[in-house]
Amino acid sequence: MIQLPALLSGISTLFLVTGTLFAVAMTLGIMRFPDAYTRLHAGTKGLTIGAGLLMLGSAMRAPDYVTALRMIIVAVFLMVTNPISTQAIARASYRIERARRHLVVDEYGEAVDTLQDTGSQDDDGT
What SS3 state is found at 48? Predict the structure, then answer.
């Protein structure tokens, strides 16, 4: 029969190794992908999942419950705020028009054009 501390240590190690692999994949994606949007995708997934797994794995090895709770709170904070900030960065990148050159399909631009043709405005006034 497996003892509980050995089981927690094994699960913690699995989380830490998997989180590290996500971090390495994120780094490679940011270095290799050709445009801002795919780089943002790699960074968002790598940070949200990778850092979350690293924090959970570290929380399982924490010396006390207060430290573990703090790590879990930080992981939840990253999971909530990272996609929001990435969306804001993607929208800003779209607006400076440098990133638009590489788009094959531009549904957002079509929607904005349609709204402007009908005289409506979206949530930020464009």
Answer: helix
